[in-house]
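The data layer described in this paper is built around a simple, fixed record for each protein. We quote a single record here, exactly as it is kept in our systems:
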Amino acid sequence: MDPMSSCLGFTSAGVPRMLRGGPLVNRQCSNRLIPRHGIVMGARKEKKEDANSGFYKNTVNLPSTNFSQRANAVKTEPEIQKFWADSKTYEKLSSENPREVYSLHDGPPYANGDIHMGHALNKVLKDFINRYQLLQGKKATLIPGWDCHGLPIELKVLQSLKSKERKDLTPSALRKKAKEFALKTIESQKASFQRLGVWASWDTPYLTLNPEYEAAQIEVFGKMFLEGYIYRGKKPVHWSPSSRTALAEAELEYPDEHISRSIYAAFSIVDADKSKNELVKKHSDALSVAVWTTTPWTLPANRAVAVNPAIVYALVELEGRVLIVAKDLVEAVGHKLEKDLVVIGEVTGNDLAGLHYEHPIQDGLKCKILIGGDYITTESGTGLVHTAPGHGQEDYIVGMREGLEIFSPVDNAGRFTDEFCEGSFAGLSVLDEGNQAIIDHVSKRDVLLLEEKYNHKYPYDWRTKKPTIFRATEQWFASVEGFRDQALEAVRGVQWTPEAGEKRIFNMIEGRNDWCISRQRTWGVPIPVFYDGDGEPVLNQQIISRVAEVVSE
């Protein structure tokens, strides 16, 4: 037998010993002893001898391939993508596949910066779906889009300018810069998505800044207005002092770590002697309602205290006062005040409704105790709710029902106006020094019972990461009341994957309030409305059609 053949003809027991470097002593191979270190080590030593170069390598029967042993993705990925582009692979499959058309709708990202992991996840998952449908023989398409309007882009432009440039910037100049920024960002994001390997119709995207797209939005707005789904009104909305604009619910974040300065306060009842309840009448000289609020700055806008007719209220003695507190909260309130509250009697919410109290801020103003709703509970606070219709949604509903003033003495920057207390608080930020000034004021008036920090979820502007406020302003709203049932029926007709998505969307639509669609900003699609000399809106089909025509040009 050839010496080399006998060298490779190891027994089944001998092979693993050799592979693990076992001591195969006195085994001859071409008149050489295999070292005790094993065949691999032996091969390394032989490498030094030119005459035997590759000696052991040639004895191993391994497959041969031209496939690279390393990914080298930096080099190979662009080559593969260039091959796809040159071959028009996506275009051919999406147009020539034998089965039906499959359209994947692309929710557009904001054109306000580089892509992040959220963008990548979104587009890659869509690409998974589209490629699968292409493999199934369908004409699968993905038309990419970009949201080119709104506050995110406007803020990016403003942040890129120096202080003097921002001050001298006209609205038309800002819109021009915003458009340039959006288009530049689109090209950058598109290149990134293509580098990720996403297949889409990149040469024909939809852009919300295209004139025909803007005109279509105006036409839809007009149709909704004429059918009664859009209206103008003054009501409290989420307002961002940092962005100086109204925000929709979807533009908010609710961090857990927000700390408010909450207060317990006592509002003195001024006409308890006229009550039909003998207990209330008996203590008329010392009677006060106890309220709790996490927004002391809203006290100037207070126009009522709301009670729940289903709650039993207790009269308790506290240092010369007789406070009215929900019976179930007496112990909790006493613990907060570090006082033993002695209950001297009980009344109902109906017994209190109709009485009046002295306003905690403004001299001479008397406000009413009235029936609220189920939002008044005994889970926290006092069971009586400070009501400011200009600064809260439930407050607004009660205020409209009772004919209360929708008062909101706060400007666009979140500062007090001069509409109360002869302007002594004007210019103070309601979230900072203005809040402290109100606390100090009620303390001097002997209204304050307790101030404490309160940790809770609170709405923040998702762009500036700063707290928002509720503020009543004139805004345009889209009402869902007219088509809520149709929308819910449409949800039921969708095949959902995963099925949990149906419940989430259904609940969101079912509980959706009217949507504030107006923004106090420069870069966006204009609301096609004009105003007469009295400030009333003028809007009809002729105006809508003409504005859409001009915008589309």
